[in-house]
Design goal:
Blueprint (H helix, E strand, L loop, with lengths): L2 H6 L4 E3 L3 H4 L8 E6 L5 E6 L6 E3 L9 H4 L1 H22 L8 H16 L2 H17 L1 H6 L8 H16 L2 H8 L2 E6 L8 E2 L18 E7 L2 E6 L2 H9 L2 H14 L5 E3 L5 H7 L8 H14 L6
Length: 302
């Protein structure tokens, strides 16, 4: 497919968990999708990886011409995911210590993207930027620059901030310099995937400190972790595999908003009982709440 044909038919399925990762959980072309129905009950059905963990036009820049409105997806997110897919294949082969500097950068960028690219986080980002744009109106009027930012400018700013949050050099370098490990499990229990499958410390400032870590299932029997110190990384991977799997699965299922993926139905009871049961910190939702609260109090956010 040429770049021109891609432009003429821009994708509307914007995956926040990419298909290369989801496909590790499929059997016969499908994985088991756990989700909440309209009543709030957790249901299960087989589903293709293409049909889960996407938002319709999630990263679209409204107001841009059709050939440019989807560039956040077609140029940025797909670039991240395509590069990460190649690194993912090496991690599955146990080659974490053989990654090049470029491959480490590509994987770190992908892991950072998982923190910010879900529908929950995108809603928080859009709201936070919209609140700040509205707050800027009096300043623009005073400067004679008009009454408000055009909606398309606000949308463009939202996506620029998202790109910076994902590809921030300082945070990226911090993650790259953490100690990376990959564990291939032999325990019959499987790791699961969800719409926010990260295991991180409960406090917000988790990245880079000596007790910081970030865990991610990259296959039903393969776990990736980055930790703040070598000794901490060694302790994390030296745990009994049952404990390692259970800890990660609790985070994966507990942080889920509307999707948990599994390869087999063995643990359906656990998934249904723990689905979305943990608070999940969102940087962008926290920003939006901070700006909203400050606006209601008539104050400038700190």
């Amino acid at each position: 497919m040429t770049m021109q044909s891609k432009t003429q038919n821009p994708p509307w399925r914007h995956h926040f968990i990419p298909q290369f990762l989801l496909e590790e959980w499929k059997t016969g072309g499908e994985l088991l999708r756990y989700y909440r129905d309209w009543r709030g009950d957790v249901q299960c059905e087989p589903k293709s990886p293409k049909g889960v963990c996407f938002g319709r036009d999630l990263y679209k820049t409204e107001g841009f011409p059709p050939e440019h409105a989807q560039q956040m997806e077609t140029i940025f997110m797909q670039w991240i995911d395509n590069a990460a897919a190649n690194v993912h294949a090496r991690l599955l082969r146990g080659e974490v210590d053989a990654l090049s500097d470029q491959e480490c950068t590509e994987w770190a960028r992908f892991v950072m993207s998982l923190i910010f690219r879900t529908p929950l986080d995108i809603r928080g980002l859009r709201e936070a930027v919209a609140i700040q744009a509205e707050r800027a109106r009096p300043l623009m009027e005073a400067d004679g620059e008009g009454e408000e930012l055009p909606p398309v400018a606000v949308q463009d700013l939202q996506m620029k901030i998202l790109r910076y949050a994902i590809d921030d050099p300082e945070r990226g370098s911090t993650l790259i310099n953490m100690h990376w490990r990959v564990v291939k499990t032999s325990n019959p229990r499987e790791l699961w995937i969800s719409d926010w499958p990260l295991d991180v410390p409960s406090n917000a400032a988790w990245l880079g400190g000596p007790s910081s870590y970030i865990g991610l299932p990259i296959a039903p029997n393969v776990w990736f972790v980055a930790a703040g110190t070598k000794s901490f990384a060694d302790r994390l991977v030296a745990r009994p595999q049952r404990e390692l799997i259970l800890t990660q699965n609790r985070a994966t299922v507990g942080h889920a908003q509307n999707f948990v993926g599994a390869k087999t139905p063995k643990a359906a009871k656990f998934i249904k009982a723990n689905f979305g049961g943990l608070p999940r910190f969102s940087v962008t939702q926290s920003m939006a709440e901070k700006y909203r609260t400050a606006g209601q109090a008539g104050q400038e956010p700190a």
